């Protein structure tokens, strides 16, 4: 029962705010914060239960029958195993900090209570997705998360850009959701398990269809986690409130795709060809997005492409068979990326724009925001002993130990790590160091916005330590306790279990060189103003720079190849419908109208004319005969005599 309360508490807050939000007014956040804090405490209670030996192999569950049909039943269940509890803690703890930040950030908005209602529904959907032990239940929650992301991204719907961004996110993720739905249907049709525990115990049940089913599920993850080529919606999602950006990018929506891949990992191990797809997609995405982030000047866009790149980093680890490394980086990334976005919101709130080239020197006027941003930036760059260092090294170790021997994955991951350190240091220098380049006087944000920054900074510093060598890699042991152990003995240990972590001296040196090199180059170029390339190379590289700065023209390519042709086809079909189909229908209607008019004329002129004519003749005859009735007896006698004579004459002629 306590387990089911984790998603039900935010759902109850949503219902209360929808019906009573206007009356609650400025107290609306209190309802959402209290409900989510309840989910936080319950998630920690589940963590405590998992330390009990009784739940080592049978984690807490809540099950109920959803549909009974033909003697069969569809049973849904919530499962609090180590993987689910880890994600619950990430979602609720970081989400609570973001929600507290929103109290100050959204103050004065005319739809204040509605915003917190949408946030509560978002958390209810996300927590259901995380705890679901059945693919159908996960899909229902998956669509709920998609709906809430649309509502939150387009929250300021009076802005055309926000409305368009919400629609773009909704439609793009629907493309991926189709793959997820097809994967679920394929598993159901081929007799595969739809519960995750059953899938872990019998991943071979679908036989040769395992790889295809895994790829279809992964296609859903590609859309939700903004992987290439379905990444285009995420940068535009920045049009929503900054708190929404932090929520989507750090702890919830985009993490759902990585979580799904990790949750269904036994199926990927049963169809190892799917792991090749996952690894290649992650590698392309992580490097591709990192190069774009190096060229952006919009603060939110830098962080958006950073998120895409880091999600690709996680997928790369999963594609190497290292489910733990991918999930470990998800946890650390949630802490420092949420902090980066909330710091960005604080900066934008102070300077009223997002162009980093018009900032500078803000560390003096915004010391808390500046210090916490730099902590998060160095964590993301992989500076030891901050959180990102440990998880980044785990991913590099996974790429180095790829069981399929794809050496290019390691070089891609290494190059991305260096680029990450470069672009995030560049952003920190342009915003907080040097002399001010903008107009106006910035000031530090209110305590409701700065307290969450300090809270998340602690996570960005220390959350990676839970898997340090001094703990015996406790987090790895906890997460693998039974999650992937049932995936199939050697397969799980060869690729899914042990490939996640390796802190050898070679990787340690590589990690430090990448972080130091990226930070050093950024400081030389943007801190000291040193030109790193000769003039000739800079001129020669301008076309390449323009391509990257314009995001490889992917949006323009989609518009030219997909959107415009489909719009042209839709317009042609509209004209055909309007002129052809509607013309035929309208022509048939017009013909029917003329036929009915002709029938009406025939009815009025001929049918009614004949009837009315007969009536008129009868009337005339009657009028004529009535003229004979004068009331004089003499006239009647005369008529009788004449009539009798006529009859007599006729009789005589007839006898003759």
Written overview of the protein:
The chain is an all-alpha fold. Helices cover 74% and strands 3% of the residues. The chain is built from 26 helices and 2 strands. It has helices at residues 2-24, 28-50, 82-105, 112-131, 135-153, 160-189, 196-201, 210-224, 233-236, 242-251, 253-263, 265-270, 273-293, 299-319, 323-351, 362-365, 367-381, 387-400, 407-432, 447-462, 474-479, 490-497, 505-527, 535-549, 554-628, 633-655, and strands spanning 61-69, 72-79. The N and C termini lie far apart (120 Å). Residues 485-502 have low confidence and may be disordered.
What is shown here, in short?
With 656 residues, the chain is mostly helical. The chain is built from 26 helices and 2 strands.
Distance N to C terminus: 120 Å
Mean pLDDT, all residues: 86
Which regions are unreliable across 5 or more consecutive residues at pLDDT < 50? 485-502
Number of helices: 26
What are the main properties of this structure?
656 residues; mainly alpha; two-stranded antiparallel sheet; 26 helices; 3% strand
